Amino acid sequence: MTSKHARLDRFISLNSTLNRRDVRLAIAQKRILVNGKHASNIHQVVSQFCHITFDNQTLQANTPVYIMLNKPAGRVSATKDSTHPTVVGCLPQHLQANIHIVGRLDFNSTGLMLLTNNGAWSRHLTSPENKVNKIYEVELERTINDDEWPPYISAFASGMYFAFEDLTTQPAKLERLTATRARVTLVEGRYHQIKRMFGRFRNKVIALHRTHIGALTLDPALQPGEHRLLNSEEIIKLSNATFTNTDIK
Question: H or E element: which one contains 119?
Answer without folding.
Answer: helix 119-126
